[in-house]
Amino acid sequence: MAKHDRHFVNVFSAVLGILIAIALLLIGVSRLVDSGPKGARDTGDPLMQASAHERIRPFGQVAVAGADNVALAIQQAAVPVAGALAAAPDAAQPADGKSVYESACIACHGSGIAGAPRIGDQAGWAPRIAQGAATLERHAIDGFQGQAGLMPAKGGRPDLSDEAVRKAVEHMVAQSR
């Protein structure tokens, strides 16, 4: 073997030996770190098992037609649903036009999205105000699509009463004259 080949084999063997030593050292350190305190990875612990089962349990169930699905029955609410729905709109209704505007209308009329005239923009509101309050209120309640843009019914808030929408229209018109 030539002298330069022998030199290459010696250097290659030394580098390979150092890499193997580093790999063995890293394996030893990782096993030392992984061991942790005794019992840290005790998978037989009932509390740990319950916690794991809670995190991985399915969030839904499937009802199969023709099968016994009694176990999947929906629990009845303490308050009848119709009573809950009837009580909710009254509690959630904003008191005046300004609060309705701030909770629903500002999304479009605050920045002019979808062709909505910005509140306070007299030039944008003038043609609409000229149509009359009844037309403005009807468009706000029922929705309207015109050349200038789109007005979703009740501003996209079907939970609002017609009276609340009327108050919001009055507020915006008053601010935009």
What does the model show?
- This protein has a domain at 92-175: Cytochrome c-like domain (Cytochrome Bc1 Complex, Chain D, domain 2, Orthogonal Bundle), CATH 1.10.760.
- Residues 83-88 have low confidence and may be disordered.
- 58% of the residues lie in helices and 2% in strands.
- The protein is elongated.
- The protein has helices spanning 3-35, 46-56, 81-92, 97-109, 122-130, 133-142, 162-175; strands at residues 144-145, 150-151.
- The protein has 177 residues and is an all-alpha fold.
- A two-stranded antiparallel ribbon has the order 1-2.
Features:
single chain, 177 residues, 7 helices, Cytochrome Bc1 Complex, Chain D, domain 2, elongated, mainly alpha, two-stranded antiparallel sheet, 2 strands
Helical residue percent?
A: 55-70%
**Proportion in β-strands:** under 5%
| Global morphology | elongated
Alpha-beta classification: mainly alpha
Beginning-to-end CA distance, first to last residue: 101 Å
Q: What letter string, H or E per element, gives the SSE order? A: HHHHHHEEH
**CATH arch. level architecture of the domain at 92-175:** Orthogonal Bundle
In which order are the strands of the major sheet placed? 1-2
> Tally of extended strands?
2
Low-confidence regions:
83-88
CATH topology of the domain at 92-175: Cytochrome Bc1 Complex, Chain D, domain 2
Say which CATH homologous superfamily of the domain at 92-175 is assigned.
Cytochrome c-like domain
